[in-house]
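Bench notes, bay 3.
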Amino acid sequence: MPGENLSRDEARERAELLTVDGYEVSLDLRSAVGDSADAVRTFRSVTTIRFRRTGTGSATFVDLIAPAVTSVELNGRALDPAVVFDGARITLDSLADENVLVVDAQCAYSRTGEGMHRFVDPEDGEVYLYTQYEPADSRRVHANFEQPDLKAPFRFEVTAPEGWTVWSNGAGERADDGVWRFAETAPISTYVTCVVAGPYHYVTDTYRRGELEIPLGAMCRRSLAKHFDADDVFLITKQGLDFFHDNFDYPYPFGKYDQAFVPEYNLGAMENPGMVTFREEYVYRGKVTQAAYERRANVILHEMAHMWFGDLVTMVWWDDLWLKESYADFMGSFSLTEATRFTNGWVTFANSRKAWAYRADQLPSTHPITADIRDLEDAKLNFDGITYAKGASVLKQLVAYAGRDAFLEGARRYFKRFAYGNTRLADLLSVLEETSGRDMKSWARSWLQTSGVNALTPEVTYDAEGRITELAVVQDGKELRPHRAAVGLYRLSAEGALVRYARAETDVTGARTVVEELAGEERPALVLVNDDDLTYCKIRFDEGSLATLRAHLGDITDPLARALCWSALWNLTRDGLMPARDFVAIALEFAGRETDIGVLQMVHAWSRSAVTHYAAHAWRAEGGRLLAEGGLRELRLAEPGSESQLTWARFFAATASADEDLQLLEGLLDGTAKIDGLDVDQELRWAFLEPLASHGRADEDRIGEELALDDTATGKRHQVRCLAARPSAAVKAQAWAQVVESDTLSNALVEATIAGFVQPSQRELIAPYAPRYFAAIERLWADRSIQIGMDVVRGLFPALQDSEETLAATDAWLAAHESAAPALRRLVLEARDDLARALRAQACDGRAR
């Protein structure tokens, strides 16, 4: 990986030297089909780049990662590939004022989801291709200047196997000579170019708005077509286009709008203009909850927002990644709640997206939203909870601070002023200052250029009659920020509901802010700081409010307020301020009354984490038993056929370990047991089979029988996960070897094997792999692609060996590898911090005995 890196300084120097006028890329993908699916394969890639020297200097380089280069020609002069190509770069010298470079290369199909990914569908043997580039993998498909500020028009042509269809960013068609040719794009960055090719199932529609007409397309593998609900995808797409046209006052700028759901995808989705790609798991094979459809809708809208924030106007370098990702994350939820049926999108944001941000912002690798990105490895790791969810949270705070109208007018001016160009932080701030009249530089210093999360705690005093004499908000944190926040007062009604009766919105500044508007109000049962979730902070409670939540959390009628309280209680648990067993008790008491399925799913995940990572060792077995008992109880109580029933069924399966629970799962699989209304479809069957495998009640033959029922790509991933989950030393050794010692597995199967290998019920079985992990990771990081490196280093860290000894081993590795790749050290430091946090939380839980 180090030889494939690119530094910010190198990118800046190259941008000062040249201007790119255009690319012509010709790909021959006929080699994608033919003999053995496991054969080493390459495809021909011929790239013509037209560029000008506009700065001083006569030498530069072009990026290309390829097994071989056939020829390089600069301005008609042949260059020796053996001399100028080092495997990642082509060196160019003697540049003219105007240059034409032609590179003929053999590029490799990918099995890791980077570059040109090749997938063979086990169901019908069909081959599917797609590209994925962010931040810098287009150089695996064609030669280019791989940095976001060297935008240029692209013209693609693709020769594909007979019977295939090919798509790219621009509209295209197959000519008489069999070559697919695509319209030239507007100036775009290399990382958002795209090619999708294969026998995809393709559905079309059209978006119309006045004289504007946008062709719409949606596609998936043929074997998934029977599950593909393209109508709902198009519905959300049209609603999103309406919303962004209404609010951005800049017509969608890239012609057509295709959306491809592709296999073995590393990301949620990617915003390639005119050709958005998604992971195909968003094509649901079985019954899922509305929360799943909401997540898909949010992703569709997130990627659509990128057409303006990121594609039309692009950051100069990855330091300002937030200029696209934070805005897209915010706009995804903003448009979701205002334009679609998912009107509670801010509840999901408060409960799920912010949890991601809070975790990331407390790691040693936390960084300002405008980060210091030295190179591409830094950039890859900064697609994190800070850049996405904290950035989006801060933008929500900005809307409260500057006003909705000023915020949206700022966006409109930004697009018109910088269309098809590149920007930095100062460019956006100047526009927002124009529209809001606020000092955006001081706001940016506090919110964008510092790291860490504040905690806001209410401090309340009362008079003899029980009325508030003073309510103050105390702010903790390294950097005390200005918060536009609301404080809500809640009381129990005669009917037993916990409802808000008073609210004040205020500017919280400094260490202590008095909320004068609430003086004189009667004593509340609950004081909720950051009511309505206007700002980004951790919520704390006074003693009375915490006691109320222990007894009445389920009585809060407002779903957003309830979600905020769940999130706050989880933060208390993670911070070692509430025993894990207390969080589990609250969850078991009130989760059954949670009406928002997305919140319920998060509470389930947090409850399992509380027992797995934060509970004292001596209480783990008891905690696991309580979760399984509670899960089964709520499963039986849930309305037959409801989303709640499905959610509790999955939770019960994930926590089952007792013989009688495992027997019930076996009965639900073989039909000898039944729960009224529960449809055990194929996806749920796999969810029931995995715990049976991990507890030794499903062997290889039984797992093979299930694969025979579901011999698909998804079924194969489930099979691999279940096989690796079996409680056998030989199984674990084989799984370890497949992931760490071999690179034959695809990215999807690496992920599935790791998930099966790491089972909380098998701590002792996988303990011997802790020292092997530390011995292997530096070599693995050097040998594998960065995506696989990240997956393995994160996924196999011995977090389940949660002891001071593992912490010491981690510290020893860090001390002995100070010169290791910074990105690798960051991943280990993050895992070390999670482990140290778990040990602190376990100590807190142990004191609760």
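Next record in the batch:
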Amino acid sequence: MNILPGNLRFGAGQPVKRLEDQRLLTGKGQFIDDKPEDGALWLHVLRSPHAHAKIISIDTGAAASMPGVTAIYTGADLIKDDVGTIPTLSIFKRPDGKPMTVPPRRLLAHDVVRYTGEAVVAVVASSRAEAQSAAEAIVVEYDVQPAVVDPVEAVKPGAPVVWPEAPDNIVGAMSYGDAAKVDEAFAKAAHTVELDLVSQRLVPSAMEPRSTIAEIDKTGRLLLHVQSQTPASTRDVLAEAVLKRPKDSVRVLVGDIGGGFGQKTNLYPEDGIVAYVATKLNKKIRWRGDRTDEFVGGTHGRDLTSTASFALDEKGKVLAYRVKSIGCTGAYSSGAANIIPLVLGPFVQTGVYDLPLVHFEVKSVMTHTAPVGAYRGAGRPEAVFIVERLFDAAARKIGMDPRAIRKANYIKPGQLPYTNAVGQVYDSGAFAHMLDRAAKLADWDGFVARKKAAKKKGLLYGRGLTSYIEWTGGRAHTEKVSLHATAQGRVVLHSGTMAMGQGLQTTYTQMISDTLGIAMDKIDVVQGDTDLAMGFGSVGSRSLFVGGTAVAVSSNDLIQKAREKAANVLETSIEDIEYQGGMLTVVGTDRRISLFDLAEKETGARLSVDSEGEVDGPSWPNGTHICEVEIDPETGVSKVVRYTTVDDVGVAVNPMLVTGQIHGGVAQGIGQALYEGVSYDADGQLLTASYQDYCIPRADDVPPIVVTLDDSAPCRTNPLGAKGCGESGAIGGPPCVTNGVMDALAELGITQLNTPLTPQKIWKAIRDAKTSAQSA
């Protein structure tokens, strides 16, 4: 971890309004589709209508002769040109001990298609409409094969096989803990509770669908304009794995991104096709996905099926914790597809609780569906959902207050730093304190009166509680930046992290302004250019606590370098130079020089430093969410009417931005709990391929969310004391809302429903419960 001078300040605690908003809200954003066409050719992708089929033939003759068509490419063409495949991380073992194996992810399918929506043919034409029309004239003959879409069914004997080298469809498996000791604890337990739980597959719903432009510049370099949270790795994969050319021959440029949520961390086949065609034709090529392209061709999130159980003593202390899970990767493995269920979920599966005796068994499994990848939280929402649903179920079975059972199992302050059951070290936290504070702010004691009032109106009323924890950092604990003072009186930061709505421009500007004493309107934050910055990027809520650490280091480095330069110019020792507000002064005199005057004397008229920030490990944001839910038993419609959170993000540089991030995450959590869910039919056809069939929460589905930030336990692994915050709401939200709904339904004897808790599902459960009660 970097050790920085104690007198440096980093803008902590200031709710500065977002600098980005004036530009973005007045139509002055620089999104890919804002770029002028400049004679670019348009590319359109013809997708497979089948979930599993052999490609017998592709007839492009009629399409090739249509107006405006420049070229048509198939998978065979790309193989002929030695175009590579998109790699995955082959770091796991199958249950038989053999290395994991997955089908090669080609830019265009060759011989076999493995999910509905897989790219098969690329058409290039003068206009987007002409490319689309020509694609409709292509005739592909398929030999349709059996498909499997349910990961639980996929591992059963005789299930259709996605990839012959994995005949059981299992990609990889991991096991944690001691099965024998856990079985022994269950045999002796006073109470046991078990739930079958599903974190259903979701479609990330960024405002801006994916799009790509590629062109060759005057020097022969390939320029790729793309939406990417990780520009550097996008460049490297495209150059080395796909196009097989030197990395420095490719420049990735990322402008504004209209939402990422983890979905935009990978190189997609469409990106690679556009780049390939640009190099092939030496023309500017552009592609823009429709919303349906996102549903059928983008990565999905979640999709974890689990059976989980607690063994408890008479007082509600958990003696052992057992989970068996199947995580679905879809037809291909994206970069993080197997890491999410096999590693990231288990990292936090014990939550904020002292649960040392565990046995977790996890498999990642292929199906004939769209690939699964990172989506806000990536494994942690699924894991926290399991432990929090179990605690509520256990409390109800034993007859304990849901707060009391959690307090009986919390990690105590004296146990910190705490090593959990899978070896992860929590450096800080005050978990019982967070619960007590949230309960008070949520008016816990007033719930009974609100429930009584709802009952008078014929409504069911319930309360949900969740204590969550989140692992952040993306396993990348360093970040590089460069900082420049220019002769024009500006300070310019180049960072490899990537803004996609979090407000990084504002936060970084705050930090630099506070440290250097330079006005915020004199500071420029430049991201998304691999020629200027090659950091890891923005994943896993790492931008502030890792990227921000690099910004803090660079500010200090720039001051130190400026002091050295000033000492030279002013002919004194560096110890006599004092820096303040952009001026370097010889202590006790009026001799001084400005930072920008120093820059004018440098090569390129700028004073620059290249810096690296390093943290000691991940951060562990955590907190308590409490909500209240009302249900109309006549329609099954449920509504979240109150929502309170107390969140520990360590030191918040900009509390307003943190609050906004938690609001957004909770909204997505409400969507997961109540509304959203991908559905395929038995043949692998996507039934939820648009917002007519896939429901996301609207503004009136989200109640006022009262967010309180608690900084009583700052992070100890970075010099800022900050913890990630971008995913927290989406981790605490789903179990909190689900627990609230199940609490409301408990009086009818309904103990388990799987999300999304749609009106139809709730109405049917209420009807069946009443029928059972009448016949009893």
